Amino acid sequence: xxxxxxxxxxxxxxxxxxxxxxxxxxxxxxxxxxxxxxxxxxxxxxxxxxxxxxxxxxxxxxxxxxxxxxxxxxxxxxxxxxxxxxxxxxxxxxxxxxxxxxxxxxxxxxx
Length: 111
Hints:
Strand content: 25-35%
Helix content: 10-25%
Number of helices: 3
Strand order of the largest sheet: 1-2-3-4-5-6
Shape: globular
Structural class: alpha/beta
């Protein structure tokens, strides 16, 4: 389920479901002008991990917003293999950058 931004380059959310059960979310921002995507937070409930739900969510965003350079926030050590897998599947770097937000994204400070 996609909850769109209320303003250009504002916060958006993908609510992740497995059937009818909500199992996580992806919080992100997109700035078409700067050609930048920023994945602020990906969370998948423990029992739903390992089914590719997070991977499918990120790949969906990558396809929905082609041509962007994607950044992500500082990740837990255990997330390293996740981002390596995403980078291989997309040829994108998904560079870790806590301040990957452009000036347009910083206007919306809800995160």
